[in-house]
Amino acid sequence: MTATAKIGAPLLEAPGERTKRALGPAALACMGVVFGDIGTSPLYTLNVAARSASPSGQITPEAVLGIVSLIFWSLIIVISFKYAILIMRADNHGEGGILALLALVSPRRAKRNRWRAAMVVIGLVGATLLYGDGTITPAISVLSAIEGLKIYAPQLDRAVVPLTVVILAILFLIQRNGTSFIGGIFGPVMLVWFIIAGALGVIGIVRSPVVLAALSPLAAITYLWHAGPLALVVIGGAFLAVTGGEAFYADMGHFGPLPIRVAWFGVALPALTLNYFGQGGLLLAEPNSPDVLNSPFYALAPQWAHVPLIILATMATVIASQAVISGAYSMTQQAISLGFLPRMRVVHTEGREIGQIYVPFVNWALAIGALTAVIGFGSSDALAGAYGIAVSLLMVITTLLATFVALHWKHNPFVVFTVNGSLLAVDLLFFAATSTKLFDGGWFPLLIAFVIAFLMLTWRKGEEVMDAVRLEIRERTSIFIERLRSDPPLRIPGTAIVLGRMSKGVPLALSHNVNCNHVLHERVLLVAANMTEAPRAPDHDRFVVAPIAEGITRLELRFGFMEEPNIPERIAEAMATGRIETFDLTRAIYYTGHETIIPSGRRPGLPRWREALFAFLHHNAQRPGAFFKIPGSQIMEIGVEFEI
Questions:
Q1: Same domain, 392 and 533
Q2: Which run of H or of E encompasses 596?
Q3: Rama region for 8: left / alpha / beta (φ>0; ψ in -120 to 50; rest)
Q4: What is the DSSP letter of 622?
Q5: Is 6 part of any domain?
Q6: How far is CA 246 from the centre of its chain?
Q7: In sequence order, what are the residues at sequence separation of 6 or more whose Cβ sits closer than 8 angstroms to the Cβ of residue 385?
Q8: Could you identify which of 165, 333, 452, 509 might form a hypothetical disulfide with 593, taking C-beta atoms 3.0 to 4.6 angstroms apart as the criterion?
Q9: What is the pLDDT of residues 353-367, one digit of tens each?
Q10: Number of folded domains in the chain?
Q11: CATH, residue 264
Q12: CA-to-CA distance for 123 and 103, rounded, in angstroms?
């Protein structure tokens, strides 16, 4: 998988803190999170590609060598060179992932232009592909592990789907309780998995050492040149070996690039190479065996080891699935902070660890999608078509965004276009190959991505329209202050903290309260919480204080998109620095607006039916008080209607 899956990462960990970790433990920890998906790809990759190359049920030695060579060089070019060496350099203050990259491409302060708007749309599609992929990864991973039962006991064939459904259902059910109790074993289990996968590969290589000829790229080039119409289909099957590579970039923010590279080049890549070559060697030794062709991974193991191997494979695929699920939570939190999604309930299940959050809506949406995929497709072979197309398109989008960022950072254009253009050509080849499965299931993750991308774009555009409306209705600060002086309201004891989305003008909650009740607290804080394009707001830029009048102060709080927006905590921090007057936070009253949106179709930007959709999303968004961690007993909401 593919998303920002951070198991056990401290929420407010500064980027510099990562360097203080010992390299060995960090490299071990990242195996379970970063390599869970790509590490379990040997369960289904070679048999999907081999069966694509042998419609008659018999595979030629040239096809075996060509496919193994294609898989090996895909791992070298796409994973080792593109992701591990190049893409991981395009960090956003140490953070990676498609949304962090999108924040670099389209900062909120940047001027609008067609290229930037196009990059926003492309980046959002890439982000939403992770949700589509997130529904497929648990399904195909666990299903491929349980399918090992069919080799050990063919009569259990009918139990594969029900068992997979039960395992996934349990996995999604336990999310609400947090997963730190299994997070600690992720790395060690995956290390054992890689060791055993590599050892099994050695067995197959010993059976047919001639498979080592696949180390040369000529084996892949020669086979594909003579494969004819089957070439694209085989490339699409081999592409499954690199699914999960995008996690290298997505998880860079927690582990840092060095531990990921050390774990990849030192453990994962050698183990995967040995296993794929071992599977190829077994196919060369027994080309007519149905069991070998259907599941060369399990066929590498002796009969007595099948059950322990199935158990280990199931554990490894559950780890891959958990990383996907946790990553979807983390990416959702980032999308909310960056203004791409409405506020949702985010539960921190394990203290202050960002990997230990639970987003109920996302959890059950993924559960429905994954279980539907298992029941609807029924086998890992059928799911393979649905799996590759989303990941290949995501890789195309990542390369495009990284190119835009490299040019923005003033790198040599010739070098950028030469290197990234070559990588983009490879990505497009894989996308074309996986697109052959569009009508065999590839439409499934694309449909999910399209729906979510449309909702994201509607929400983002709707918020822009709403900001314009708020500015029109809001009373200017100078006019409000002059009105207070000419017709002073009754000043009552205590502190009022008035929340507003923007740091301009007077929040409607305050002006409405003064107009209707003609009272004002002795101390008033106008608080605006803004999210920055950086993962964490730097210490010198966490709040901006501006006195307005006697007893009235404007306080702009800034949060990074990886931070938890806790307003009381940040106000206490401002008081501790002496920037604002100290008062008792537990006795303050927080005023927020309860906004009701009335679609009218009169404003440019959104047709009326999309205004109605935005109004629906806004109505069902989490209330500001809960989202900003404000105690419910201290909140007073003031209703405001907006016609858009």
A1: no
A2: strand 589-598
A3: left
A4: P
A5: no
A6: 9
A7: 236, 434, 437, 440, 441, 442
A8: 509
A9: 444 678 899 999 999
A10: 2
A11: 1.20.1740.10
A12: 9
